[in-house]
Design a protein that fits this description.
This protein is mainly α and 491 residues long. The protein has 2 domains: 326 residues, no CATH class; 85 residues, no CATH class. It contains 18 helices and no strands. Helix 2 packs parallel to helix 4 and helix 13 packs across helix 14. The radius of gyration is 24 Å and the shape is globular.
Length: 491
């Protein structure tokens, strides 16, 4: 083996029996958990307010499993037949299109101001983010029909330009300053999101204009009719406007909301897949991407954990992706990572800095310009020495160190304004059920119970228990309150 060749983990047997292949396929069926949960949520709606949060449980269980130490490092067997795994991808694609349709149907009956709409941001948004993984698998296929299906899935979350930018932009420029989807060393998630979203769209637009003959061509140039980014905009927003015309504003808003949440999840993945890494060779190497060995990410997210091999051979199907030992390793699976980078970004950066320093990767790679390396060390030391603060809560100091009566008063004013707005919205949609005052009092009691429960569960959770568990437990308190009051009132 050449000195600079990547080293794989232990090789598998050359051939598997059908029972063994079947068991691998069964494990990959875990990829149905998130989209099927979303579909069940939509098919069983509209829901009363205290039932809707129950649909957060399946994604929560997936999150907990993905953050455990269960690992999967077995290498694939090249002779494994592809057709069962292809059928699974087609099934996942069909589920996403069905979900978008049922989303529109649900909110033609359910009110705009409802907890079901909040669940769109969590339950359906998670599934829509997952659909981009399926689309990603399809657009890398060589078959035009599969690529087209992948583009349709991307249009369903208003991200069709990802097809152009990812294939012809990201895979060419990954790990370089020219790649808008590569997060820079020391960059936090929110800064990355604000930078990468418009930059990736602009890159896709330039790539298409260049393909059509003129990178600087104007918007009204007749050649723009063949621009694939334009096609994606027409398809995605055309579907949204069709939903608005057929099902109403609430359905249209839900469609846009699920697309926004899918964008947030997509960019959180882009963020940690290459954070701080810098390519030094013409060909992408395993050390230019972050990997994870989490069991659920590999099986439940169709091989996404083996991102290093994906960049080595982009057309390799998900069930054939390999493990390489050179790749830096993430602390958890992808579900845990999205929670970490969006909610506990400093914690992610601390792990990433240590990993890059230990492996001498990114700006710490031998041969890096000394001035640049010293600057990176200063940034890394600042990150490592910054203390992680737990949420201050409603009565504690804020993240900026604010204290005193003003911060408490300001938080109560914000909460009160939101409760008034939500009460007014619900009252407008359902004027005869309760008086405005009674509804406002009820909303205040529910919100207060949730806030108190969240504060208690945050204090009770241990250092290694994720924040999402405290939120889940607090939501279950709301479910219990709703169940009891509903039984008492006979509703």
């Amino acid at each position: 083996m050449a000195a600079d060749a990547p080293t794989q983990a232990a090789l598998p047997p050359s051939r598997l029996t059908w029972p063994a292949i079947s068991w691998i396929f069964v494990r990959h069926l875990s990829s149905l958990l998130i989209p099927v949960s979303s579909l069940v949520f939509l098919l069983t709606g509209p829901h009363v307010w205290y039932v809707a949060p129950l649909f957060m449980l399946p994604p929560l269980f997936a999150f907990l499993f993905d953050t455990k130490a269960t690992i999967e490092r077995r290498q694939p067997v090249e002779t494994t037949p592809a057709w069962p795994f292809d059928l699974l991808v087609y099934l996942l694609a069909a589920l996403q299109l069905w979900i978008v349709y049922e989303l529109a149907v649900l909110f033609s009956h359910q009110g705009f101001f409802s907890l079901d709409m909040v669940m769109v941001a969590t339950v359906v948004g998670s599934s829509s983010g997952f659909s981009i993984i399926t689309a990603h698998e399809l657009i890398h296929r060589r078959n035009k029909a599969e690529q087209t299906l992948g583009r349709v899935l991307l249009a369903s979350v208003l991200q069709e330009h990802f097809y152009t930018e990812h294939l012809r932009g990201h895979h060419v420029k990954v790990g370089t300053p020219e790649d808008p989807a590569t997060a820079r060393f020391g960059e936090n998630y929110e800064d990355f999101y604000r930078r990468t979203v418009p930059a990736q769209f602009k890159s896709a637009w330039r790539l298409e204009c260049k393909r059509l003959g003129d990178e600087e061509m104007g918007l009204l140039d007749p050649r723009q009719l063949r621009n694939r980014v334009v096609h994606g905009l027409v398809l995605g927003w055309g579907a949204g406007l069709a939903i608005f015309a057929a099902f109403g504003f609430a359905s249209f808003f839900a469609f846009v909301l699920q697309a926004f949440m899918a964008s947030r999840l997509l960019e959180s993945v882009n963020y940690f897949e290459h954070w701080g890494l810098e390519r030094t060779r013409r060909r992408v190497q395993p050390e230019d991407s972050w990997d994870t060995h989490a069991w659920f990410t590999y099986y439940g997210l169709t091989g996404l954990s083996r991102h290093a091999d994906h960049h080595a051979e982009p057309a390799r199907p998900y069930q054939q992706l390999r493990v390489f030992d050179e790749a830096p390793i993430l602390p958890t699976g992808y579900l845990g990572m999205t929670d970490m980078v969006m909610g506990r970004n400093l914690e992610f950066q601390k792990h990433a800095v240590r990993e890059l320093m230990d492996r001498e990767l990114g700006p710490f790679r031998p041969g890096t310009d000394p001035e640049k390396q010293n600057a990176a060390r200063e940034t890394g030391e600042r990150i490592l020495t910054t203390k992680i603060r737990k949420p201050g809560g409603w009565f504690g100091p804020s993240n900026q160190g604010e204290t005193g009566a003003w911060i408490v008063a300001r938080r109560f004013l914000i909460a009160g304004a939101l409760l008034l707005a939500l009460t007014a919205g619900v009252q407008f949609e359902n004027p005869g059920e309760l008086s405005f005052f009674a509804r406002f009092v009820l909303s205040t009691v529910i919100f207060t119970a949730f806030a108190i429960a969240l504060k208690i569960f945050r204090r009770l959770r241990g250092e290694d228990v994720p924040e999402v568990l405290a939120w889940g437990a607090a939501l279950m308190v709301v479910v219990a309150i709703g169940t009891i009051t509903g039984a008492v009132m006979g509703t």
